[in-house]
Design goal:
The chain is 50% helix and 14% strand. The chain has a 7-stranded parallel beta sheet, with helices on both faces. It is of the alpha/beta class.
Length: 273
């Protein structure tokens, strides 16, 4: 892995904290030049400083097309052409679908889905011109599973998977790899106060390792843990009534189990009407 990443330029969105931070640190340690973009630009620069000389931080609002374009231009000016992009930026509101504030719904769709669309529209043509590149997006197991209490979040992540399926077909033969990393619940601020269901709680480093493995051996759909994708494909063959029973055991009901107090600080950042 170290030899593969030596001198390669990696850009990471939402890279100041959580999965993005762990991924940036891991890839930098493997020899990559890592550019961290985050809505909190100061946090991005602090994280880059903590990682070391091979990392640099920038301001980035993934929901703003011009901000994303400026981020990519700055990275290419300072570090060189981007070989790998890791889309890590994401937000989640948890609760009953009818109780979700409009601001939370819009924020999730803007960050989780539109941010990815911006990244692909802006960067894939540049990679296509060079005949090589890899765009990896941290989605969620909610991209494929029914997740009560996370309706809009799931919609955004289903949208990411659907969008990238279509773009992947358009890019066939171009030399560009697209990958969707779909973890179960990860121990980050985004998941505070939520339940895990049948899967064990993941750490950000588990997802970072999955990203590194996928860079070394590109695949399109990657679930973390890997058995989730296998189990879902099997369950999908069952009649709907039996499928519902099995999935209810696998997937937590966040409407019934969410700890609103534990989520108030995190969700308060983007639920102001």
């Amino acid at each position: 892995m170290t030899g593969m990443l030596q001198y390669r330029v990696v850009a990471s969105t939402g890279g100041a904290n959580g999965i993005g931070r762990e991924t940036a640190a891991l890839l930098a340690a493997a020899g990559a030049r890592v550019a961290i973009g985050d809505y909190d630009g100061e946090a991005a620069r602090r994280t880059a400083q903590e990682i070391g000389a091979s990392a640099v931080g920038f301001d980035l609002d993934v929901t703003d097309y011009d901000s994303f374009a400026a981020f990519l231009a700055s990275v290419e000016s300072e570090c060189g052409p981007i070989d790998i992009l890791v889309n890590s930026a994401g937000v989640m509101w948890v609760g009953g679908f009818a109780d979700e504030p409009e601001s939370a719904a819009r924020r999730q769709l803007d960050v989780n889905l539109l941010g990815v669309i911006h990244s692909v529209k802006l960067l894939a043509p540049r990679m296509q011109a060079r005949g090589a590149g890899h765009i990896l997006t941290i989605a969620s197991a909610a991209s494929i599973l029914p997740t009560p209490g996370e309706a809009t979040y799931a919609a955004s992540k289903h949208g990411v998977l659907g969008y990238l399926k279509a773009v992947r077909t358009e890019l066939r033969g171009s030399g560009i790899h697209l990958s969707v990393i779909m973890p179960t619940v990860v121990d980050t601020a985004l998941a505070a106060g939520t339940s895990m269901g049948s899967a064990a709680m993941l750490q950000p480093g588990d997802v970072a390792q999955a990203v590194a493995r996928t860079i070394a051996r590109p695949r399109f759909e990657v679930t973390v843990p890997g058995y989730v994708g296998i189990a879902y494909r099997f369950v999908s063959l069952l009649p709907q009534r039996l499928r519902d029973v099995v999935l209810a055991r696998m997937v937590p009901d966040q409407v019934a189990s969410v700890d609103r107090g534990a989520r108030s600080g995190y969700e308060g950042q983007f639920t102001q009407e």
